[in-house]
Amino acid sequence: MSDEVKATATWNGVKVDTYTNVRTGEIRIYQTKQLTPVLLAKSTPGNGKAGWTYVGNSGYDFMNIYNNEQRATGGKELTQKEFNQQFFTTGTKAFNNIRGTILRTEANYVNAGIPITERELIKQGHFNNRVPGSVDPASDIMVNSDGTIPDRSTSGEDLIELDPILPTSGPGGGPGSDPTPTPVPLEYTGAEESRAEDDRKGGPKGQGSGRNAKAGKILRYPLDEPGGPFEYDYISITAHDYLPSGLEVVGEKFTKAETAFKNLGPAYEKVIFPMQPQISETNAVNWSDDQLNPVQAILGKTANDLISNGITGGLKEIQNALGDLFSKTKNALGDSNTKAAVAAYFAGQAVGANLQGRMTGQVINPNLELLFNGPNLRTFNFNFRLTPRFKEESEIIREIIFAFKRNMSVQRSNTNLFLRSPRLFQLEYIYKGGDQHPYLNKFKPCAMTNFQVNYTPDGSYATFDETGSLTAYDLTMSFSEVMPIYSGDNEYTENPTDMGY
Fold it and tell me: Using CB atoms within 10 A of its CB, is residue 43 exposed (0-12), middle (13-18) or buried (19+)?
């Protein structure tokens, strides 16, 4: 005996398993064909309502399964907002229909071993919690699909009209207990579509860099995880076509946000990894020591005067510059000590030896100073251990490795005359499935400079009999940002909302 009734349904081409608990009124939706069932969404009645929530990655899992099916059948893929609207309107109504039918079927309470005296209390509890499709034992009023209670017994017409044919009893025992569930027809189409976009903040519009842009397939490891919706942080790595910078001056044509992402073209696979135990960044600029002795200073000053004045001036300006050089040289050689030091310096330069130090016991003042030479590009290194636990996860790991290999590879032109740049990667630290992590650094677009796969990280060759997959994989990857960090990228604000670049 089990309190749960299992039914398999197909919603918009997506086949799922549902489990309805006749005691609590809870319904859970699982992805089918998984060795370890993946919980996608649930509705747990309580406190007078029975709302729906996603479970696991806040709907991205469910959306990815939906879009994969659409790609396979040539259907329309949805953004996260579009999928949310469709699921929380026609989708939840369809699954409420399944639950309501099961809760109204007396045989399900009998099969669960619930005494007849207790059944009335349970049914009354479902009605009090506004479980759609449940019926008040006293008045026979049925709760509407939106959780409202009508004032007449002929209620819930929308649910009655859409009721699928369900078995009066079904195998229980929780997900995975029955390998041959009973199919249930459930098709809903024509949902009102939303055209609202959910672009990522700080990314260039129209270039596929938004979180919900047409970014191709999402590959996620681990494939399933414990916990509720978005109860973990993760690293997102999305491949993009490389767009050349061209000859435009930086900042002349692009806005600040677009300048940082102007090299990103259309998006391809997005790979999601769990956070690493070691996370760090290094910001550096290039400073180096520089010398300018008095002789070089005099010659440099003369050269600068000739270039800045002589080009725009006439012969007289050139004569004045050369005369100034002659005058300074004559004054310097007027002192006997200076004359000897200068003579020793030039003699040493001629033979490549420090004659000045040997002859005079002194060196010419180098005027040593630390000078700025330019910015440095940041580099990032990541190491991920991937250990497949079931067949589907092995396949995802294979796709992840293949995607990185393909996207980092040099591309050939159609004529093979030229080589095209490999794709770039946009990295993000995501906080609980939402936006950029507020306490970790941001990334500019990166090039993958190294990708290494260790197929035997434990020092021995071992595979799974069912698939042939290796038992573990170590991925080592290095990224280098294609643009340096400028002061304008980390502008001062009194109340910053992120850690900056």
Answer: buried
